[in-house]
Amino acid sequence: MRIARLFALFTFLLSACSAASPGADAPLHVLATTDIIADVVQQVGGEQIALETLIPSGSDPHAFSPAPRDAVRISQADILFLNGLGLEASLQPVLENLPPDALRVELAQGIAPLQMDADPHADAHDSPEGAADPHIWTDPNNVRAWLPLIVEALSQRDPAHAALYRQRADAYAAQLDALDAWIREQVASIPQERRILVSDHLVWGYFGERYGFSQQAALIPGFSTLTQPSARDLAALEDNLRKTGVPVIFVGNTVNPALAERVAADTGVQLVTLYTGSLGPAEDGADTYLGWMRYNVRAIVHALR
Predict the structure, then answer these.
(1) What is the spatial distance between Cα 78 and Cα 254, in angstroms, rounded to a whole number?
(2) pLDDT tens-digit readout, 193-232
(3) Which of 146, 152, 209, 276: disulfide with 107, CB 3.0–4.6 Å?
(4) d(Cα 189, Cα 192) in Å, to the nearest integer?
Protein backbone atom coordinates (compact mmCIF):
# COMPACT_ATOMS: atom_id res chain seq x y z
CA MET A 1 0.00 0.00 0.00
CA ARG A 2 2.80 2.41 0.88
CA ILE A 3 4.54 1.63 -2.43
CA ALA A 4 1.31 2.26 -4.33
CA ARG A 5 0.82 5.63 -2.63
CA LEU A 6 4.43 6.62 -3.33
CA PHE A 7 4.05 5.54 -6.95
CA ALA A 8 0.97 7.72 -7.37
CA LEU A 9 2.71 10.66 -5.74
CA PHE A 10 5.83 10.15 -7.87
CA THR A 11 3.68 10.21 -11.02
CA PHE A 12 1.98 13.44 -9.95
CA LEU A 13 5.24 15.15 -9.05
CA LEU A 14 6.96 14.06 -12.24
CA SER A 15 4.12 15.40 -14.35
CA ALA A 16 4.24 18.70 -12.48
CA CYS A 17 8.03 19.17 -12.46
CA SER A 18 9.77 18.91 -15.83
CA ALA A 19 13.48 19.62 -16.21
CA ALA A 20 14.31 23.10 -17.44
CA SER A 21 16.89 23.53 -20.20
CA PRO A 22 20.08 25.13 -18.87
CA GLY A 23 21.04 28.58 -20.07
CA ALA A 24 24.04 29.08 -22.32
CA ASP A 25 26.38 29.74 -19.38
CA ALA A 26 24.58 27.71 -16.72
CA PRO A 27 26.23 24.48 -15.54
CA LEU A 28 24.48 21.23 -16.32
CA HIS A 29 22.36 19.95 -13.44
CA VAL A 30 23.64 16.39 -13.00
CA LEU A 31 22.42 13.78 -10.53
CA ALA A 32 24.30 10.58 -9.62
CA THR A 33 22.76 7.83 -7.54
CA THR A 34 25.85 7.07 -5.41
CA ASP A 35 28.78 9.17 -4.24
CA ILE A 36 31.18 6.78 -5.99
CA ILE A 37 29.50 7.47 -9.33
CA ALA A 38 29.33 11.17 -8.47
CA ASP A 39 33.08 11.38 -7.87
CA VAL A 40 33.87 9.81 -11.25
CA VAL A 41 31.37 12.03 -13.07
CA GLN A 42 32.88 15.08 -11.37
CA GLN A 43 36.33 14.21 -12.73
CA VAL A 44 34.92 14.53 -16.24
CA GLY A 45 32.37 17.29 -15.75
CA GLY A 46 34.49 19.68 -13.70
CA GLU A 47 33.10 23.19 -13.24
CA GLN A 48 30.75 22.72 -16.21
CA ILE A 49 28.34 20.68 -14.07
CA ALA A 50 26.40 21.22 -10.86
CA LEU A 51 26.49 17.74 -9.33
CA GLU A 52 24.27 16.21 -6.67
CA THR A 53 24.18 12.72 -5.15
CA LEU A 54 20.85 11.00 -4.64
CA ILE A 55 21.76 8.33 -2.06
CA PRO A 56 23.32 9.90 1.06
CA SER A 57 27.01 9.19 1.64
CA GLY A 58 27.55 6.39 4.14
CA SER A 59 24.24 4.73 3.24
CA ASP A 60 23.68 1.24 1.90
CA PRO A 61 22.55 1.66 -1.74
CA HIS A 62 20.70 -1.64 -1.60
CA ALA A 63 18.50 -0.36 1.24
CA PHE A 64 17.80 3.12 -0.18
CA SER A 65 14.11 4.03 -0.30
CA PRO A 66 13.33 7.18 -2.28
CA ALA A 67 11.18 9.92 -0.79
CA PRO A 68 8.78 12.00 -2.90
CA ARG A 69 11.31 14.84 -3.03
CA ASP A 70 13.74 12.45 -4.72
CA ALA A 71 11.31 12.10 -7.62
CA VAL A 72 11.43 15.87 -8.03
CA ARG A 73 15.24 15.88 -7.96
CA ILE A 74 15.36 13.17 -10.63
CA SER A 75 12.83 14.92 -12.85
CA GLN A 76 14.70 18.23 -12.66
CA ALA A 77 18.14 16.83 -13.52
CA ASP A 78 19.58 17.34 -16.99
CA ILE A 79 21.27 13.94 -16.69
CA LEU A 80 20.87 11.05 -14.24
CA PHE A 81 23.81 8.66 -13.90
CA LEU A 82 23.07 5.34 -12.23
CA ASN A 83 24.83 2.03 -11.80
CA GLY A 84 22.20 -0.38 -13.10
CA LEU A 85 22.09 -4.18 -12.69
CA GLY A 86 19.42 -3.83 -10.02
CA LEU A 87 21.39 -1.70 -7.57
CA GLU A 88 18.78 1.08 -7.75
CA ALA A 89 15.74 -1.20 -8.02
CA SER A 90 13.76 1.01 -5.63
CA LEU A 91 13.88 3.84 -8.19
CA GLN A 92 11.99 1.93 -10.87
CA PRO A 93 8.58 3.58 -10.24
CA VAL A 94 10.20 6.97 -10.77
CA LEU A 95 12.35 5.98 -13.76
CA GLU A 96 9.44 4.38 -15.60
CA ASN A 97 7.54 7.68 -15.49
CA LEU A 98 10.27 9.99 -16.71
CA PRO A 99 9.48 11.89 -19.92
CA PRO A 100 10.81 10.38 -23.18
CA ASP A 101 13.52 13.04 -23.55
CA ALA A 102 14.95 12.46 -20.05
CA LEU A 103 18.61 11.44 -20.21
CA ARG A 104 19.49 8.62 -17.84
CA VAL A 105 22.72 6.68 -18.21
CA GLU A 106 23.20 3.17 -16.79
CA LEU A 107 26.95 2.82 -16.40
CA ALA A 108 26.81 -0.98 -16.29
CA GLN A 109 25.88 -1.13 -19.98
CA GLY A 110 28.57 -2.90 -21.95
CA ILE A 111 30.08 -4.58 -18.87
CA ALA A 112 29.61 -8.36 -18.77
CA PRO A 113 27.94 -8.98 -15.40
CA LEU A 114 29.02 -11.73 -13.08
CA GLN A 115 26.29 -14.23 -12.31
CA MET A 116 25.36 -16.04 -9.13
CA ASP A 117 26.71 -19.57 -9.27
CA ALA A 118 23.96 -22.16 -9.28
CA ASP A 119 23.71 -23.68 -5.80
CA PRO A 120 21.32 -26.58 -5.27
CA HIS A 121 21.35 -25.85 -1.53
CA ALA A 122 20.55 -22.14 -1.87
CA ASP A 123 17.35 -20.90 -0.26
CA ALA A 124 14.69 -19.23 -2.40
CA HIS A 125 15.32 -15.86 -0.72
CA ASP A 126 18.90 -15.67 -1.97
CA SER A 127 19.85 -12.62 -4.04
CA PRO A 128 16.39 -11.07 -4.49
CA GLU A 129 17.71 -8.47 -6.94
CA GLY A 130 18.41 -11.17 -9.49
CA ALA A 131 21.38 -13.15 -10.70
CA ALA A 132 23.57 -10.23 -11.86
CA ASP A 133 26.24 -8.79 -9.56
CA PRO A 134 25.83 -4.98 -9.52
CA HIS A 135 29.13 -4.17 -7.73
CA ILE A 136 31.01 -3.29 -10.91
CA TRP A 137 32.95 -0.41 -9.29
CA THR A 138 35.17 -2.82 -7.30
CA ASP A 139 37.25 -3.22 -10.49
CA PRO A 140 38.77 0.08 -11.69
CA ASN A 141 38.83 -1.29 -15.23
CA ASN A 142 35.04 -1.29 -15.14
CA VAL A 143 35.07 2.31 -13.91
CA ARG A 144 37.33 3.15 -16.85
CA ALA A 145 34.58 1.78 -19.11
CA TRP A 146 32.18 4.33 -17.62
CA LEU A 147 34.15 7.26 -19.03
CA PRO A 148 32.99 7.14 -22.68
CA LEU A 149 29.38 6.94 -21.47
CA ILE A 150 29.87 9.96 -19.21
CA VAL A 151 31.55 11.95 -21.97
CA GLU A 152 28.81 11.08 -24.46
CA ALA A 153 26.01 12.13 -22.10
CA LEU A 154 27.63 15.39 -21.02
CA SER A 155 28.48 16.24 -24.61
CA GLN A 156 24.94 15.54 -25.73
CA ARG A 157 23.57 18.09 -23.28
CA ASP A 158 26.53 20.48 -23.61
CA PRO A 159 28.24 20.04 -27.01
CA ALA A 160 30.23 23.26 -26.60
CA HIS A 161 32.44 21.57 -23.99
CA ALA A 162 32.68 18.12 -25.61
CA ALA A 163 36.42 18.38 -26.24
CA LEU A 164 37.04 19.42 -22.64
CA TYR A 165 35.04 16.44 -21.34
CA ARG A 166 37.09 14.08 -23.54
CA GLN A 167 40.34 15.63 -22.33
CA ARG A 168 39.39 15.21 -18.68
CA ALA A 169 38.22 11.64 -19.27
CA ASP A 170 41.54 10.76 -20.92
CA ALA A 171 43.45 12.20 -17.96
CA TYR A 172 41.33 10.28 -15.47
CA ALA A 173 41.66 7.06 -17.50
CA ALA A 174 45.43 7.35 -17.08
CA GLN A 175 44.96 7.61 -13.31
CA LEU A 176 42.78 4.49 -13.34
CA ASP A 177 45.43 2.63 -15.35
CA ALA A 178 48.03 3.62 -12.77
CA LEU A 179 45.69 2.47 -10.00
CA ASP A 180 45.24 -0.91 -11.68
CA ALA A 181 49.02 -1.36 -11.95
CA TRP A 182 49.45 -0.37 -8.29
CA ILE A 183 46.81 -2.89 -7.17
CA ARG A 184 48.56 -5.68 -9.06
CA GLU A 185 51.83 -4.81 -7.33
CA GLN A 186 50.17 -4.81 -3.90
CA VAL A 187 48.30 -8.10 -4.21
CA ALA A 188 51.39 -9.84 -5.56
CA SER A 189 52.63 -9.91 -1.95
CA ILE A 190 49.72 -12.19 -0.89
CA PRO A 191 50.37 -15.91 -1.39
CA GLN A 192 47.88 -17.37 -3.86
CA GLU A 193 46.48 -19.81 -1.31
CA ARG A 194 45.57 -16.89 0.98
CA ARG A 195 43.70 -14.90 -1.64
CA ILE A 196 40.29 -15.80 -0.25
CA LEU A 197 37.65 -13.16 0.35
CA VAL A 198 34.82 -13.72 2.83
CA SER A 199 32.58 -10.69 3.19
CA ASP A 200 29.22 -9.57 4.56
CA HIS A 201 27.56 -10.08 1.14
CA LEU A 202 28.86 -10.97 -2.30
CA VAL A 203 30.39 -7.59 -3.11
CA TRP A 204 33.98 -8.30 -4.23
CA GLY A 205 33.40 -10.56 -7.23
CA TYR A 206 34.72 -8.19 -9.92
CA PHE A 207 37.74 -7.30 -7.80
CA GLY A 208 38.42 -10.98 -7.18
CA GLU A 209 38.09 -11.95 -10.83
CA ARG A 210 40.47 -9.19 -11.93
CA TYR A 211 43.16 -9.69 -9.29
CA GLY A 212 43.10 -13.43 -8.65
CA PHE A 213 41.02 -13.75 -5.48
CA SER A 214 38.39 -16.34 -4.67
CA GLN A 215 35.17 -14.88 -3.26
CA GLN A 216 34.59 -18.04 -1.30
CA ALA A 217 31.63 -17.20 0.91
CA ALA A 218 29.58 -14.42 2.45
CA LEU A 219 27.52 -13.93 5.58
CA ILE A 220 24.58 -12.98 3.37
CA PRO A 221 24.54 -15.43 0.45
CA GLY A 222 23.55 -12.98 -2.27
CA PHE A 223 24.41 -9.79 -4.11
CA SER A 224 22.15 -7.64 -1.92
CA THR A 225 22.38 -6.78 1.75
CA LEU A 226 18.58 -7.12 1.88
CA THR A 227 18.89 -10.89 1.66
CA GLN A 228 18.43 -12.67 4.97
CA PRO A 229 20.64 -15.69 5.69
CA SER A 230 19.00 -18.75 7.15
CA ALA A 231 20.28 -20.65 10.17
CA ARG A 232 21.51 -23.31 7.75
CA ASP A 233 23.41 -20.68 5.75
CA LEU A 234 25.21 -19.43 8.87
CA ALA A 235 25.99 -22.90 10.14
CA ALA A 236 27.49 -23.85 6.77
CA LEU A 237 29.52 -20.65 6.68
CA GLU A 238 30.94 -21.15 10.17
CA ASP A 239 31.82 -24.75 9.34
CA ASN A 240 33.56 -23.58 6.18
CA LEU A 241 35.55 -20.94 8.07
CA ARG A 242 36.74 -23.50 10.60
CA LYS A 243 37.75 -26.02 7.92
CA THR A 244 39.58 -23.60 5.65
CA GLY A 245 41.20 -21.48 8.34
CA VAL A 246 40.19 -18.24 6.64
CA PRO A 247 41.57 -15.57 8.99
CA VAL A 248 39.28 -12.62 8.30
CA ILE A 249 35.79 -11.48 7.31
CA PHE A 250 35.60 -8.19 5.44
CA VAL A 251 32.63 -6.11 6.53
CA GLY A 252 31.29 -3.12 4.61
CA ASN A 253 30.99 0.24 6.32
CA THR A 254 27.32 0.60 5.32
CA VAL A 255 26.23 -2.76 6.77
CA ASN A 256 25.13 -3.53 10.32
CA PRO A 257 28.09 -5.50 11.75
CA ALA A 258 26.04 -7.47 14.31
CA LEU A 259 25.86 -10.64 12.21
CA ALA A 260 29.58 -10.52 11.41
CA GLU A 261 30.41 -9.99 15.07
CA ARG A 262 28.36 -13.06 16.00
CA VAL A 263 30.14 -15.24 13.43
CA ALA A 264 33.53 -13.87 14.51
CA ALA A 265 32.75 -14.70 18.13
CA ASP A 266 31.77 -18.25 17.15
CA THR A 267 34.78 -18.92 14.92
CA GLY A 268 37.56 -16.66 16.18
CA VAL A 269 38.14 -14.95 12.83
CA GLN A 270 39.11 -11.28 12.65
CA LEU A 271 36.76 -8.59 11.31
CA VAL A 272 38.15 -5.92 8.97
CA THR A 273 36.02 -2.99 7.82
CA LEU A 274 36.14 -1.95 4.17
CA TYR A 275 34.32 0.80 2.32
CA THR A 276 31.91 -0.82 -0.11
CA GLY A 277 28.79 0.96 -1.41
CA SER A 278 29.87 4.46 -0.43
CA LEU A 279 33.02 6.55 -0.19
CA GLY A 280 34.74 6.98 3.17
CA PRO A 281 35.98 9.98 5.16
CA ALA A 282 38.81 12.24 4.09
CA GLU A 283 40.85 11.26 7.15
CA ASP A 284 41.07 7.73 5.73
CA GLY A 285 41.88 9.06 2.28
CA ALA A 286 38.77 7.29 0.99
CA ASP A 287 36.72 10.33 -0.04
CA THR A 288 37.47 9.84 -3.75
CA TYR A 289 37.13 6.70 -5.84
CA LEU A 290 40.91 6.43 -6.30
CA GLY A 291 41.46 6.82 -2.56
CA TRP A 292 38.59 4.43 -1.81
CA MET A 293 40.24 1.69 -3.85
CA ARG A 294 43.66 2.31 -2.32
CA TYR A 295 42.29 2.20 1.22
CA ASN A 296 40.48 -1.10 0.59
CA VAL A 297 43.43 -2.73 -1.17
CA ARG A 298 45.78 -1.79 1.66
CA ALA A 299 43.34 -3.24 4.21
CA ILE A 300 42.91 -6.47 2.23
CA VAL A 301 46.65 -6.93 1.70
CA HIS A 302 47.44 -6.21 5.36
CA ALA A 303 44.84 -8.75 6.53
CA LEU A 304 45.78 -11.59 4.17
CA ARG A 305 49.52 -11.24 3.63
Answers:
(1) 29
(2) 999 999 999 999 999 999 999 998 899 989 998 888 899 9
(3) 146
(4) 9
Residues 106-133, mean pLDDT to the nearest whole number: 69
Spatial contact of 29 and 77, defined as CB atoms under 8 Å apart: yes
Closest CA to 303 of 196, 211, 230: 196
Distance CA 86, CA 75 (A): 20
Phi, psi of 170 (to 5 degrees): -60, -40
Domains annotated on the chain, with CATH:
28-112+132-177 (3.40.50.1980), 191-304 (3.40.50.1980)
